[in-house]
Amino acid sequence: MSRTTSTATVTTDRPSRYGKQLVNHLGRHQGGEWSEESDSGWIVLGAGRTEVTCADGALELRLDGDADDMPGLEDVVGRHLVRFGAKDELVVRWIRADSTPGTEQGVSAPPTD
Known about the structure:
Blueprint: E1 3-11, H1 15-30, E2 32-35, E3 40-45, E4 48-55, E5 58-66, H2 70-84, E6 92-96, E7 101-105
Antiparallel strand pairs: 1-5, 1-6, 2-3, 3-4, 4-5, 6-7
């Protein structure tokens, strides 16, 4: 299997709150750690690893894993973050290393005619 990365920048006024919550929740299963000092953390999910970093007005996510597993890894991380930030209507849009769009979470389905 080939390794690849996928990234997402999630706009939020509370990146530290959501980053810490995401790392603490998902990290309980296979490993993870949040650093208050650097406002960043990491999560292990199966064969994948997610780096979580706070920026000004955004939470930055970087997933590293097997290319075949990427859609599922994106979905797990994105769904949890969207659920935690439901009040703020967070949206996660992943971009793969080859610049192609990945999965999206928190996006309403387009209206049907």
